[in-house]
Amino acid sequence: MALFEPVDHEQLEWTQKARSGQLVVPSRRHLYREGESSNDAYTLFDGWVILYRSLANGKAQILRFALPGDFLALHPDQNGPRTHSAQAVTESVVCAFPRTELVDMLHNHPKIAMRLNWIHTRDMTMCQEHLLGIGRKSAEERIAFLLMELFHRMRLRGRANGNQIVFPITQEHIADAVGLTVVHTNRILRQLRDALLIDCARQRLTILDEKRLGEVAHFRIDMVEMRHLI
Amino acid sequence: MALFEPVDHEQLEWTQKARSGQLVVPSRRHLYREGESSNDAYTLFDGWVILYRSLANGKAQILRFALPGDFLALHPDQNGPRTHSAQAVTESVVCAFPRTELVDMLHNHPKIAMRLNWIHTRDMTMCQEHLLGIGRKSAEERIAFLLMELFHRMRLRGRANGNQIVFPITQEHIADAVGLTVVHTNRILRQLRDALLIDCARQRLTILDEKRLGEVAHFRIDMVEMRHLI
DNA sequence: CGGGTATTTGACGACTGTCAACGCCAGTGG
DNA sequence: CCACTGGCGTTGACAGTCGTCAAATACCCG
Predict the structure, then answer these.
(1) What pTM value is reported for the model?
(2) What is the pLDDT of chain A when averaged over all its residues?
(3) What does the pLDDT look like over B60-104, one tens digit per residue?
(4) Please, are residues B67 and B51 in contact by the beta-carbon 8 Å criterion?
(5) Which residues of B touch A123 (CB under 8 A)?
(6) Are A91 and A181 in contact (CB under 8 A)?
(7) Residue A49 in 3-state DSSP?
(8) DSSP string for residues in B122-145
(9) DSSP for residue B76
(10) Which of A41, A48, A222, B209 could make a disulfide contact with A89, Cβ separation 3.0–4.6 Å?
(11) B116 touches chain A (CB under 8 A)
(12) B227 confidence band (pLDDT: 50, 70, 90)
């Protein structure tokens, strides 16, 4: 998750130095937008941030929900244009550091290079899982899967309260993530609630029947575990 | 594209050593399958290879068409299970090398580490573009975009003959890549042919009207160029 | 309490999927 | 040389998931 966790002390100190500081991003504020030139990368310390791309006609596709500990803004070229936008859903705290430092780190700290490599491949696998879902699953499967995924990612961060998590995103966010309209997303959510699989209200999501929800979603927990426990 | 191109001589020699050899993969043969343990990574020298994931119900989603020069099999964990399958569409030539060597390279050759980092972010951007397409574009846009993308990727490899490329994939491949059924893919292709935008027959794709096809696809060439010209 | 945002529903339409059949073409074997 | 066969491409009719439009309701924050 975090890029700078299990490295030796000298490296850790070094990375501290590289950090150009923490940054509080208010809800709804953009951290960066597609097309801007990209000077910094970020670690998300607290909050929910959506990474998305949008089309000329206004439609948007959420690429990823970034949760605390996640790493943002790894664009192809340093100072090249950002390839997607990042917007805070809740007030968020990020730690920014210049991308030039990243280059230095790759040079001088092979362990960080390896760790970054691992993060990349893991993110790629998640993106591909997402692709599979949008391309080949039904609306119900996609939404159930997303809920399961978010629940477990929060739980792995120690941020679940039993079978409940704080859930600050709107149905429009869900719709934009799974490639459906808000209206249809709403219908599916109602369906899942009527079936007593979930309950969501006032910024909270409760998984009422994890087993059945997992079946609906064709969710395999080992995928999430694999990805997040080093 | 290729991982080992613009590095200095010493490093290049070293990578030669690391290669455990070339490998000819017959058409339709799998290079590896999802779930197998992953010992090697590959560079594709010649041929078309599809990377895909599939569901229990048999539906498949093509994640990427790998073209000559592309790099395959960068899975999260060395010796961990492969997260997708790779199958040769045409007879293909790949160069395999053990993933342990990759780890060594990250340690000892920072330029390769940086290059690998760049490849990862670029692949990620392509995957996200793909996600945007499947999630938010119409059938016609998706297919037109795919054709444009494949044409330009081939052209950048010097493998286009004017406005024509060899095109060894079936309509089922296209369908599995853009998240549609074969039947509907066929209808859209016919529509594009009737509009005299493309012509495809016998393993060849011809772009008859690149400008209009690009408009239908909302295709921006700078995306492809950015990705492939270092 | 008021105004804006988010959720919810219904009716309707359309894009895409399903089912089924046929044609085309290349390779194979008699 | 010509049937035979299997894979792929092509079409039509029909069904269904999902999108669009519109309006009402609920919720949050100042």
Answers:
(1) 0.89
(2) 87
(3) 999 999 999 999 988 777 778 999 999 999 999 999 988 888 888
(4) no
(5) 124
(6) no
(7) strand
(8) HHHHHHHHHHHHHHHS-HHHHHHH
(9) S
(10) A48
(11) yes
(12) low
- The CA–CA distances, whole Å, from A27 to A41, A150, B61 equal 19, 19, 35
Here the tokens at position B155 are: 């052209």
pLDDT tens track for A184-193:
999 999 999 9
Residue of A nearest to B110 (CA): A107
Tell me which H or E stretch contains B85. strand B85-88
Surface-to-core class of residue B157, CB atoms within 10 Å of its CB (0-12 exposed, 13-18 middle, 19+ buried): middle
CA–CA distance, A155 with A149 (Å, rounded to integer): 10
- Asked if residues A217 and A144 have their Cβ atoms less than 8 Å apart, the reply is yes
Tokens for A206, please give them. Answer: 């409760």
CA distance A198 to B51: 35
Question: Which residues does residue B46 pair with via DSSP β-bridges, in sequence order?
Answer: B93
Q: What are phi and psi of B80, to 5 degrees?
A: -75, 170
Does A220 reach chain B within 8 Å, measured CB to CB? no
DSSP, res B78 = T
For residue B216, what are its two tokens? Answer: 């239908």
